[in-house]
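chain below, 189 aa
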Amino acid sequence: MQVSVVITAHDQGELVADAVASATEQTEPPDAVVRPPGGGVVEFLHRNACPANAVLRRAAWQAAGGYDETMRDGFEDWDFFLTLLARGGRAAVVPEPLVRYRTAPASANVRSMERRLELYGRIIDKHRPLFADHLREALLGLERRAMEVRARWEDVAAADSSVPLGEITYGDGGMAAAVRVATRRAAAG
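prediction:
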């Protein structure tokens, strides 16, 4: 089985997960593949870099204390992964989807994203020493992610001139993005 091969190949790793074929109630069969990057603890500071369908050794689960059962509103897997990886090791991700994940607007995953700032704040508070030790990497990870999302928005907005730019932000790359979009639109003219 592919997963057992990866666990053997990553003996220094703590856990292994896979890409996830994602579908909604409206999109059967799956219409997207989610490929989280995995990595070490630094990669987990700005986002959960591993799906909850991870495989790990029982000793690693026990050493990390399992899930925090008080985290009933979401992000308990992310919290667990931070605890687990703070001791070292990495999360490996099998690139092929081995799990089909079906979600709906009322799913726990979607509901937790509505409270993302609150739940992320709880993660930061609980793992404050870890965030303090890696503050630069955590902040740069957030900025890198924002830049990736902004670049995708630029591609959509530049390709379709009917997409309004709306109010442009300043100091976070928004103004520069609007200039790039306007330039690309004019060139496509």
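The CA atoms of residues 10 and 92 lie 7 Å apart. The helical segments are 2-9, 58-64, 76-85, 108-114, 116-126, 128-133, 135-159, 174-188.
thats it, cya
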